[in-house]
Amino acid sequence: MTDLSGFRKEYIGNVLLESQMESNPMLQFEQWMEDAIRFGMPEPNAMILATSTPEGKPSARCVLLKESNERGFVFFTNYRSRKGMELNANPFAALVFDWHEMERQIRIEGRVEKLSNEESDLYFHSRPVSSQIGTWTSPQSQIIEDRETLDNSFREYEKKLMNNLPIPRPSHWGGFIVIPQLIEFWQGRPNRLHDRIAYYRNKEIWQMNRLAP
What we know:
- The protein contains five helices and nine strands.
- It is α+β, with helices and mostly antiparallel strands.
- The protein folds into two domains: about 20-125 and about 170-210, Pnp Oxidase, Chain A (Roll), CATH 2.30.110.10; about 130-170, no CATH class.
- Helix 4 (about 130-135) crosses helix 5.
- The radius of gyration is 20 Å and the shape is globular.
């Protein structure tokens, strides 16, 4: 068994003060995202998405943020996938951005809604054609026999769909938006006394609080 007890990093990040934070956490998120892009973080829009069944059985995976706006955080997926079905049955989710090289994390909790067909269509047709075909190809989260099954399915859909441009968006694929109720900004600090600034939404009002590390 691998002993990991000795792995320890001392964080030296800058202090995070309430007086330096935006009153609107969505603006603060945009600032930190821009910082991550300038820093050169690989895929800074990669985020952990946690969902659960109505009975509380959780699951988590990495997805890509495709838009953030005043309303929330947008991503796209197969509605028949495990996450899609869990969100349909229990429309609440948590997100985590881990920018470890910057000693920063962002944690988000909120209610989830489907995007409109028009919004999903717009993004779907902005994707590379090969990705559009892949959306039709994969029965996401279902057991398949082998890799060859997937490759053969792609080739079949490629022949069929390339003669039907523009490729239509399958009805089982589209966007979700996470409407946040909590957004927490974490900054690594020495002695494990990290800075944690959390925003809680009460209707349309955001309240900022400092949390103990």
